[in-house]
Amino acid sequence: MTRIAGLFDCLKREGRKGLIAYITTGDPSPERTPALVEALLRGGADLIELGVPFSDPIADGPVIQRAGERALKAGTTLHTVLDIAGQIRERSQAPLLLFTYLNPVMRYGLDRLAGDAAGCGIDGCLLIDASVEEAHEYVGAMHRHGLDTVFLAAPTSTPRRQKLVAQYSTGFVYLVSRTGVTGERDSLSDAVAPLVRSMRAITDLPLAVGFGISKPEHVTELGRQVEAVVVGSAFVRLIERNLDNPSLEIQLESFTRELKHGFGVPA
Amino acid sequence: MTPQPDLSQQPDGGGHFGPYGGRYVPEVLMAPVEELEAAYVTARDDPAFQAELADLLHNYAGRPTPLYFAKNLSQKLGGARIWLKREDLLHTGAHKINNCLGQALLARRMGKRRIIAETGAGQHGVATATVCALLNFDCVVYMGEEDMRRQRLNVFRMRLLGAKVVGVANGSCTLKDAISEAMRDWVSNVGDTYYLLGSALGSHPYPMMVRDFHKVIGEEARRQILEAEGRLPDTIIACVGGGSNAIGIFHAFLPDAAVELVGVEAGGRGDALGEHAARYRGGAPGVLQGAYSFVLQDEHGQIALTHSVSAGLDYAMIGPEHAWLHDRRRAEYTAASDAEALDAARLLSHTEGIIPALESAHAVAEAVKRAPAAKGKILLVNVSGRGDKDIDIYRENLKELDQA
């Protein structure tokens, strides 16, 4: 069983919900990322998505775009991200999910990446611009090395695509709360409930919802419907606002705890 | 021998030209591109849609464009007979209007009321703003801030036509960043918004659809050259950024195996990565903005910055159908430097009284290189746009003319 599957088993046994935290690896510097991840974990994050910075992030809003620019400027590459994952793995057993655009992965080599990622203690991969139609080879490579493959389903995904997403996903399925790019929103679209219903009808995999979640109220609302919620831009924005602040880790930890409280269970 | 695929019958149902093309987009964009594909395929086969488009192309845009024998240029170079396909004479000054009329009619059919577009040189933005004025759409054009500086005149033209021009300050502030921003707008406003992509790039169905709307260029040219010369040309030359004008003129000639097809990329100011936009000088297959094709990138898979004096060629990826034609050796891709393009523009202006767009000047430069050694051959050059928009850049680079 992968660490990701293990996490969702454990959550179910304990009657808890999971908080998934995204950060852009290498923002503001590769040296800083392990400490930021530790802060997220201390605050109660259950799974970490390590974002790989890319020059042309078409699915991301301005906050994560800027984080990617900072990380690239600091010299972050896919190699760097794998190194950082290895450092995190030495001190933690939290599941790690690589979150990346396709081109850096193709350049690295699919099979080589799958092998190296598994060797660094990464548990799965989400390729944001690999549609299920184009994903066959990628899924094969990841599964050969025991990695989970997480795909996105959106409120606009047709039933045919929802089925393919369920079929190709392992670990969990990532539901997009609304159409649009990543980024915080005041209120969440009510498109999630129908999407959750239709995905439940075709898969037993755990469901996580992401995009636009930034407040404990969002966590409360969505925690009633799914096994986990994903928070990204809100963490990245907090990092951006405190780039030179020595208390960044403390703030990140307490914001994580605040979000986690949204589930109604003390972290 | 394995049977040769019919190159004129590409792409397959998934938008693949051989291994290239496809649909590499985030899941949130899949529904819009599937909706677009379905709407396009229905419209394409609808005689009423085609009739309305043909009428606008003829009466509004000015098709057919002339095929002009460049007698003075041919004499001066002393070799090949050079013919020019005059897309520069179209309304708005470039071939881009062909595609814009087609896609705007499609947008209306799909019930959209807002059209967004990206633009590099500004020609596609102007053409989009024009058809939006004509067909009464709200229009937003994304343009890199560097390109806005280089193409001030076109920025003003778009505004005069009623479009909103939004500067993009991300990345290299050029065409690829404008495309990313337009994709983000589309994915956030997909209910009422149509994304009018201007080159043979991006996710399926764009490379196929944009090609289809431009293939009229080659269909006309083929008919015209047969009428004028009684035979097919030996070589067809077109500039290639994303590759829309090139695929437009190449397509009708794909089955004519004896006709050599030459795409000219932007050689910029040097061979190092970042100094040019010639994908066949150091590019590798990869995924950018929805398509798999040849793309300039560093060893870590980050998309490279590019340079060209011509904003319209300043893009890191070549259209997927061109990548396939290259692999199949049906077309050849070469490059002209900034300096060669400027020289060619000056030569064409002097000899024929035609000031080409900087993009098209790259194709002219290739003809200049080939013509002297091509006695008895027919070269057909696509003059995809006129040079009015580039006057500021010509002035910056040909300072001696201001001293006279």
Distance between the termini of chain B: 63 Å
- Beta-strand share of residues of chain B: 15-25%
* Rg of chain B, Cα atoms, Å: 20 Å
Please give the most extensive interface between any two protein chains, plus how many residues each contributes.
A-B, 40 and 37 residues
What does the main sheet of chain B amount to?
Answer: 6 strands, mixed
Please work out how many helical segments of chain B DSSP would assign: 16
Overall spatial form of chain B: globular
Fold and architecture overview:
The complex is a heterodimer of chains A (267) and B (404). Chain A is an alpha/beta fold. Helix content of chain A is 47%, strand content 14%. Chain A is built from 12 helices and 9 strands. In chain A, strand 6 (152-153), helix 8 (159-168) and strand 7 form a beta-alpha-beta unit. In chain A, helix 2 packs across helix 4 (78-91), helix 6 runs parallel beside helix 7 (136-144) and helix 10 runs parallel beside helix 12 (248-261). Chain A is globular. The mean pLDDT of chain A is 94. Chain B has a 6-stranded mixed β-sheet with strand order 3-4-14-9-10-13, with helices on both faces. A 4-stranded antiparallel β-sheet of chain B has the order 1-2-12-11. In chain B, strands 7-6-5-8 form a 4-stranded parallel β-sheet, with helices on both faces. Chain B has helices at residues 27-44, 47-61, 71-77, 96-109, 123-135, 145-150, 152-160, 175-188, 206-214, 216-229, 244-250, 320-327, 338-352, 358-370, 391-397, 400-403, and strands spanning 16-17, 20-24, 67-69, 81-86, 114-119, 138-144, 164-168, 193-195, 235-239, 260-268, 284-288, 290-295, 331-337, 378-383. In chain B, helix 2 packs across helix 4, helix 3 (71-77) packs across helix 13 (338-352) and helix 4 crosses helix 9. Chain B has 404 residues and is α/β, with parallel strands linked by helices. Classes of the chains: A alpha/beta (267), B alpha/beta (404). Chains A and B meet through helix 3, helix 5 and strand 6 of A and strand 2, helix 1, helix 8, strand 11 and strand 12 of B.
